[in-house]
Structures are given as structure tokens and as C-alpha cells.
Amino acid sequence: MKEISCKLLVIGAGPGGYVCAIRAGQLGIDTVIVEAGKPGGTCLNVGCIPSKALIHAAEEFEKLSHMAGGKSPLGITVAAPSLDLAATIAWKDGIVSRLNNGVAGLLKKAGVKTVHGWATFRDGKTVAVETEIGMQVIRAETVVIATGSAPVDLPSLPFGGPVISSTEALALSEVPERLAVVGGGYIGLELGIAFAKLGAKVTVVEALPRVLAQYDAELTRPVVKRLAELGIEVLVNAKAKGLSTKRDALLVETNGKNGKIAGDMVLVTVGRKPVTEGWGLEQIDLDMAGSFIRIDDQCRSSMRGIFAIGDVTGEPMLAHRAMAQGEMVAEIVAGHKRSWDRRAIPAVCFTDPELVTAGLSPEEAKTRGEIKVGLFPFIANGRAMTKLGEDGFVRVVARADNHLVLGIQAVGQGVSELSTAFGLALEMGATLEDIAGTIHAHPTQGEGFPEAALKALGRAVHV
Ligand code: FAD
């Protein structure tokens, strides 16, 4: 058995863990990172990156299919496209592999030692790692838990056979003819839309009265409309009850009535759970916040010398939150004065059209006082028209008294890129006048942002 010591030990090399380790290495901290899988975690290997690759391929395929159908107003016609999903997946795997190597290289460049294997706590300062070459014991002054999250299944639909999670959905070699998606949150809809564009007959089963239920109906309306255009059937107030005896259909109860959805595959996307089992949490007995590890505004757990970051610490389970926490913790360990003071964590749904939110929704903002809301529709935006992306809008929410911007939302083609401007505006404490007074390049969809601010100020120009 080998033993090593270090100042900082990071468990898990997802976006939280690897960013923490790289920053710590850059700050001259003697750092070790342990990872059981490949560098990059869920996000890089089976989450953000592979899903966006599949979504892009599906978009391209659908555009060509649309043109082949002679329906394109652009005057372009092409022959009907064909798809080799195995080749698409191989292309996606190539991107993932390049990024795996990139993360491994950055860790090395920062002087971080990587240990491959599964880590288990022995006590608050000691971790044992099962590696390919035997057990390695690591003693550390400070430990960061960045073990991430995993897909949740349903008791009536355990993963296996035709019942798959997002991980398997991102590695299929053939497009299923009929795909039932259980759970109409962002992961289910992103993947459901992609498979519909690739030719699957998709049905979404959602237990709540609306899909994307955490967003307001005004914001999700263009997405719901597009689901119908793509031929995706959406069942709301519907509960998945299990597979039929022949395992070729999903049993569903909708508004008290039992029914069946024929499906070759059932993709279950009902949420993700923190990875808090199998690594000796019981040895260190940390305080929990529900199923997540409880942390303070410096990501410290209830035990001195143990920090926790990323999905294992709660919502929003997003890669950029994990990264920001990782960077902050590395600096705290290096002795810098830091605490969590971020105003906004933007969130994007890479649906069709895309949806982005930063800060407070109108409903949330209203609970804090009087507000002003300005909405600019893309139907009045030249760039959106040239991209056939007129459905959607930018919406700005501000305090009525001093016009401080509290929240910004958008839905529309390609609006994920606007999340950068939205996050920056909130972080800088922008007012409606600041946004309205910033010159935005023409013609861009970004022009919708100052126009929405002008609308809230009662002096919109283009609507
Ligand atoms: P993870 O990325 O889950 O990494 C944890 C790592 O720890 C894993 O590699 C695991 O192998 C390792 N590990 C765990 N326990 C141990 C142990 N005991 N020993 C050794 N190693 C261990 N987020 C976005 O922001 N944007 C998106 O577009 C987006 N799309 C997504 C799409 C899908 C399909 C999915 C599933 C997720 C998506 N997410 C997205 C969420 C994002 O992937 C997570 O928020 C992010 O990966 C969390 O990072 P993390 O570092 O906390 O944990």
C-alpha cells in the first residue's frame, strides 16, 4: 500500500473539482485530485458537451430534412439527408476525448497530481483510493468533496434494457423509432427535441401541469409551440407507471385514466441526485441539507478542513456554478479572503428555441416590491428575421423605484449566447438606463436587450 501526503486533496474531477485543483496548483498549493472516471466529470463526458453535440447534429439534420421537403422559404432545396448515428456519436466522442486530454493537460501544467480510482474517506484527513495498481492512501490538510450527481430512476422504471438515462441516450448507435421521455425538464426536452429532429416519434410524459415548470408560461410558450411543430406529443398531469408486460410500451396514468405509449425506448429524466454514497460519508458524519451536503458561504462543510462544491451541494446543479465554487475554494485554501457573493447564476435550456434566465423572474421580483417589466419580441428584430427566428423575446425585470435590474430572461433561437450579457449586467448592478444606454451592434439579436430596457422605461423605439 502506497501513502502520500498533500496540502489539498480534491475528490472528483468534474467542473467543480478540476477547476478547484487547477486554480490551487496555479496558487502553488501542493494538490492531488482523485477521479474514478475520466477528467471532466458528468458535464464533459455525459452531460453538457455531448448533449450539445447531439443537439447540434440534430439541428443540422432537421434543417436539411426541412429543405429537402421543399418547405424552406430560403429558396434552397437539397436531396433528402441520411443519418449515420454511430458516426455522429463517434464525432461527439472525439470532442469529448479532446476535452478529456485538455483537462488532464491543464491539471498537469498546474502541477496537480492526478490519482485514478475511487476514493473513500477513512477519517476527515485520510482517504483510501482503489487504483489499478493497488490501494493508495492520501493524507491531506484540506479536502474538497466534488463528487457530483447521478441520474435518478423511478421505482417503477429502473434503468436497464429499454429504460435508459441521459448517459445511454447520448451513446445510442441507432435512432429509436419511438421514444418515450419521462420528465419534461430541461434534460428531457433537450434530448427529446434532438431525437425528434433525428426522426424518432417522441412522446413526453410530465407529471406536472406544464413542461419546464420552473419557468413561467410566457417564457416557455415558444418552446411548447415548437414541440407541437416537431410532432412531439406532450402528456401533462401524466404519471409513468412502468413498462407493459411485453416491455414494448410505457404505462401511463393521465388525469386518472390509464393508457399506453408504444415505445422502443423509455428515457427517464426525472432529475439528478447528489453522489453521497459509497465514499464514506458515514466516516465523517457531515451535516446535510436534505440529500445534499450542507455548506456555508465559503463552501465549508460542518467539519473543519472539509469543503464541498458543485452538484453534491445543491441547486442549481449547473457546471458553471460548480466551477465558480471550485475557483473560490482554491483561493480560500491559499489564504485569500473570498466568500460567495455572486448575484446571478444564468441558466440555459438548449431546447428549440433556446431559453435563458438570469436573476429573478417577474413573479419572484414582485414579492420584493414594485417592479417594471419590459419585453421586446424578436418579431421586431431584423437579425432574428434573417435567421427565421422570430418567435421569442427578451424580457427585463427591474425595481420600479431605482430601476436596478433584478432579472433578465430570453427565449429564441441562439439566445444562449445572450446569457453572457445578462450575467454581466446583473453582476455589475446595471440599471435599465445603463442597458438602454449601451450601444449594441446592429443587426444582432442582442439589440433586443436594450430595446426591452427601453420598453420598461416607456420609450421603446422599435415596438
Ligand atoms: P460532476 O460533473 O458530476 O463530477 C463529479 C466527478 O466525481 C465524476 O467524474 C465522478 O466520477 C467523480 N467521483 C465521484 N465520487 C468519486 C469518488 N469517491 N472517487 C473518485 N471520483 C469520484 N450543466 C450546465 O451548466 N449546462 C448544461 O448545458 C448542462 N447540460 C447537462 C446535460 C446533461 C445530459 C446532464 C446529465 C447534465 C448537464 N448539466 C449541465 C449539469 C452538469 O453536468 C453538472 O452540473 C456538472 O457536471 C456538476 O459538476 P460537479 O463537478 O459538481 O460534478
Q: How would you state the average pLDDT, rounded?
A: 97
Described by the principal axes of the CA atoms, the overall outline is globular
Tell how many strands the DSSP assignment holds: 24
Rg, please?
A: 24 Å
The number of distinct helices, counting runs of at least 4 residues, comes to 14
Low-confidence stretches: none
> What are the bound molecules?
flavin-adenine dinucleotide
Percent helix, as a range, is 25-40%
By secondary-structure content and strand pairing, the structural class works out as: alpha/beta
Name the CATH homologous superfamily of the largest domain: FAD/NAD(P)-binding domain
CATH architecture of the largest domain: 3-Layer(bba) Sandwich
Distance between the termini: 71 Å
Q: How many structural domains can be distinguished in the coordinates?
A: 3
Could you tell me the CATH topology label of the largest domain: FAD/NAD(P)-binding domain
Which CATH top level class of the largest domain fits? Alpha Beta
